[in-house]
Amino acid sequence: GHPPGHPHPPGGGGAAKSSATVSRNLNRFSTFVKSGGEAFVLGEASGFVKDGDKLCVVLGPRGPEWQENPYPFQCSIEDPTKQTKFKGMKSYIAYKLVPSHTGQQVHRRYKHFDWLYGRLAEKFPVISVPHLPEKQATGRFEEDFISKRRKGLAWWMDHMCSHPVLAQCDAFQHFLTCPSTDEKAWKQGKRKAEKDEMVGANFFLTISVPIGPGASLDLQEVESQVDGFKAFTKKMDESALQLNHTANEFARKQVTGFKKEYQKVGHSFKCLSQAFELDQQAFSAGLNQAIAFTAEAYDAIGDLFADQPRQDLDPVMDLLALYQGHLANFPDIIHVQKGALTKVKESKRHVEEGKMELQKAEGIQERCNIISFATLAEINHFHKIRVRDFKSQMQHFLQQQILFFQKVTQKLEEALHKYDSV
């Protein structure tokens, strides 16, 4: 039956036909409903798709993929500057963005990033829009926090630019290219993005997928791929949490514990050299100096330990934070896909029971196919970027670790040489 307030759909003569609609989901809070996935699958979305809004999923070597962005670009985020408005009454922090495809710098505040994130998260039900780094300062002091947030935003920006769909979307392009000084143009573009009709259910209308024989996906296969991915994200989420915790602990120990321990050793050597100085023998002066130098080396090594996490562990944790955001997005994306599959199964059953025309069921299956293509393309993209990011971050981590131990070794060798002439 129908929940109150939903008239029976037109068409369908007798009573038998009218009960044949696929039942609507009564849970208005389900993501499948909220995202517009349900309305789309049931064929209730209608809108005119402009050429500029079309999104293509193509079949790549690993299955469905988003069509590559023909004009790839990057965007750097420079260190933020304090700016003021109302003749200096109010100050805020603005980041300098330089997109490579325009070369024109623009200034954006965190609230602009926030606005954009909100628009995109609403517009794209089956795309993982990367989460923004925290707004609130929780760092040791402001400078630290601001530079940490900039690094988080740099990762965010990289993921936006690397995504074939997000990178080309109007709201993002407006955000990257509208001159900071042109308040009017900014408001216009903002209003246009907020009036965008191709959101939610209509978003799915913009997706075109491969057609022809052999192009439609096998439902069973899609289901097992999505289930496999679901298990993967759960495991990745657990291990990311674990690694983040371990790295955090390790960084804390280096900054406080290790530093203190090495400096204790240094202090003890220093005391020894001071004791030796009391002998006032000319021939032992070299030894005393060498031991004093060893003490300084240990002191310096303690400082090296304390400075190290920001070179290697912090960047790993920045990356994990970004990925934890993605992993938090996927349950909803998977839910939309699952909802679509359920409707297909239901409609097949209805056809077998003679409660639904085949044509209607085929429409439902076709639209589910579109959601499946988009979901699998998104999963593929996630894996591709993940391999790229973790490879480069792990390389960076190990390179920094090696440099660190080389610096430590160098300090110890310098100390050792001081004894050559004793």
From TrEMBL:
CDD domains: PX_SNX18. It is found in: Cytoplasmic vesicle membrane. This is SNX18 protein. Its main location: membrane. InterPro entries: AH/BAR_dom_sf (IPR027267), PX_dom (IPR001683), PX_dom_sf (IPR036871), SNX18_PX (IPR035703), Sorting_nexin_WASP-bd-dom (IPR019497). Residues 1-20 are annotated as: Disordered. SUPFAM superfamilies: PX domain. Residues 73-183 form the PX domain. GO terms for biological process: cleavage furrow formation; endocytosis; endosomal transport; plasma membrane tubulation; protein transport. It comes from the Eukaryota. PANTHER family: SORTING NEXIN, SORTING NEXIN-18.
